[in-house]
């Protein structure tokens, strides 16, 4: 067995579509804090509505195809962030197999402090050196996959009016203030696909979706809000969720249920190209990404120093909120403090770490 490995990682999904199965998964996402019963029920109902989730099956197909193509060049492992097999368990398996170098490929094409660092925080080993692929959305095969599939929809539409709506998982507005590359990458990704298709600026737009209720504002416009606020609509909307590569709840429910139902209310035809899933064009993009990095530099990784947990609460809320004058807190934080009082405003760890990065101060 090769002493070099590729670790392919994805978000995860419930291991069984039951109330408790969804509750366990949701609790993992909330870092061990069980959500309220109504929150669990809503998520469970959404999974039932779409007939479960194919994410794990699709991801394993992608992993198997990559492993077959790489052959003896590297061993390929698979892990989830919030469901089995967990990243930490897979790293132990790699250690037992004698792996010494691990190339980490997160199955999300864009890099975000908010989500991707949530994977990186689990990459810890006294034996294995890691290299992390930060983003891969510019892979030509992935860009042309989307362009080809959108073009198929355009060919069906003919001369009718349309708009292509590129959407991506939203992130907190703090990402704008602290230089998270994700937002620019999403706009860049949309522009590259639009250029391949020859779309004019008025023929496409960017929206955001799937935001979580964690008490802070998210990047807008939300895709549903965008649809409701438009005064005039084309004959067709083409939804392209470019932040994802596989069918899962945020596509099958957020797009194929919520967006589709709203389109029906508005009298507009709904279209969504198929997700890449295990399409050969996606596999070529993944392999190209791996080959361009596999002989790069591997190093000891210290996630406690290089990452942060986007949902973990800070150890001392009051210490973060009692900023000196040179720290300009966002207006929404000031409003929350004024309304609820300092000790009742729970600032996510994401914001704490971004403040540390921007201002060079350490908060214990």
TrEMBL record:
<feature type="binding site">
    <location>
        <position position="119"/>
    </location>
    <ligand>
        <name>Fe-coproporphyrin III</name>
    </ligand>
</feature>
<keyword id="KW-0408">Iron</keyword>
<keyword id="KW-0456">Lyase</keyword>
<keyword id="KW-0350">Heme biosynthesis</keyword>
<keyword id="KW-0963">Cytoplasm</keyword>
<protein>
    <recommendedName>
        <fullName>Coproporphyrin III ferrochelatase</fullName>
        <ecNumber>4.99.1.9</ecNumber>
    </recommendedName>
</protein>
<dbReference type="Pfam" id="PF00762">
    <property type="entry name" value="Ferrochelatase"/>
</dbReference>
<dbReference type="GO" id="GO:0005737">
    <property type="term" value="C:cytoplasm"/>
</dbReference>
<keyword id="KW-0479">Metal-binding</keyword>
<comment type="function">
    <text>Involved in coproporphyrin-dependent heme b biosynthesis. Catalyzes the insertion of ferrous iron into coproporphyrin III to form Fe-coproporphyrin III.</text>
</comment>
<feature type="binding site">
    <location>
        <position position="30"/>
    </location>
    <ligand>
        <name>Fe-coproporphyrin III</name>
    </ligand>
</feature>
<dbReference type="InterPro" id="IPR033644">
    <property type="entry name" value="Ferrochelatase_C"/>
</dbReference>
<feature type="binding site">
    <location>
        <position position="169"/>
    </location>
    <ligand>
        <name>Fe(2+)</name>
    </ligand>
</feature>
<dbReference type="GO" id="GO:0006783">
    <property type="term" value="P:heme biosynthetic process"/>
</dbReference>
<feature type="binding site">
    <location>
        <position position="250"/>
    </location>
    <ligand>
        <name>Fe(2+)</name>
    </ligand>
</feature>
<keyword id="KW-0627">Porphyrin biosynthesis</keyword>
<dbReference type="InterPro" id="IPR001015">
    <property type="entry name" value="Ferrochelatase"/>
</dbReference>
<dbReference type="GO" id="GO:0046872">
    <property type="term" value="F:metal ion binding"/>
</dbReference>
<dbReference type="InterPro" id="IPR019772">
    <property type="entry name" value="Ferrochelatase_AS"/>
</dbReference>
<comment type="pathway">
    <text>Porphyrin-containing compound metabolism; protoheme biosynthesis.</text>
</comment>
<comment type="similarity">
    <text>Belongs to the ferrochelatase family.</text>
</comment>
<dbReference type="GO" id="GO:0004325">
    <property type="term" value="F:ferrochelatase activity"/>
</dbReference>
């Amino acid at each position: 067995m090769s002493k070099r490995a590729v670790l392919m990682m994805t978000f995860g999904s419930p291991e069984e579509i039951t109330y408790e199965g969804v509750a366990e998964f949701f609790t993992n996402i909330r870092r061990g804090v069980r959500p309220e019963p109504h929150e669990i029920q809503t998520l469970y109902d959404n999974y039932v509505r779409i007939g479960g989730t194919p994410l794990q099956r699709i991801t394993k197909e992608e992993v198997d195809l990559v492993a077959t193509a790489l052959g003896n060049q590297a061993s390929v492992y698979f892990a989830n962030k919030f469901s089995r097999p967990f990243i930490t368990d897979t790293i132990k398996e790699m250690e037992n197999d004698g792996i010494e170098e691990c190339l980490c490929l997160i199955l999300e094409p864009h890099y975000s402090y908010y989500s991707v660092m949530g994977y990186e925080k689990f990459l810890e080993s006294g034996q294995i050196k890691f290299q992390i692929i930060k983003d891969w959305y510019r892979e030509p095969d992935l860009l042309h996959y989307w362009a080809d599939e959108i073009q198929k929809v355009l060919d069906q539409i003919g001369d009718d009016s349309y708009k292509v709506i590129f959407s991506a998982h939203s992130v907190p507005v703090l990402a704008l203030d602290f230089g998270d590359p994700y937002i620019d990458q999403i706009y860049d990704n949309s522009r590259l696909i639009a250029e391949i298709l020859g779309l004019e600026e008025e023929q496409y737009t960017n929206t955001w979706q799937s935001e979580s209720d964690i008490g802070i504002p998210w990047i807008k416009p939300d895709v549903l809000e965008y649809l409701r606020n438009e005064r005039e609509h084309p004959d067709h909307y083409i939804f392209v969720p470019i932040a994802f590569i596989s069918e899962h709840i945020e596509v099958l429910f957020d797009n194929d249920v919520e967006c589709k139902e709203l389109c029906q209310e508005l009298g507009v035809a709904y279209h969504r190209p198929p997700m890449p899933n295990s399409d050969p064009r996606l596999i070529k993009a993944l392999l190209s990404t791996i080959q361009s990095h596999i002989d790069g530099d591997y190093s000891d990784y210290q996630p406690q120093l290089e990452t942060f947990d986007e949902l973990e609460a800070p150890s001392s809320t009051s210490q973060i909120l009692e900023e000196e004058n040179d720290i300009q807190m966002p207006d929404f934080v000031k409003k929350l403090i004024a309304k609820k009082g300092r000790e009742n405003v729970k600032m996510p760890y994401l914001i704490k770490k971004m403040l540390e990065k921007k201002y060079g101060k350490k908060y214990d």
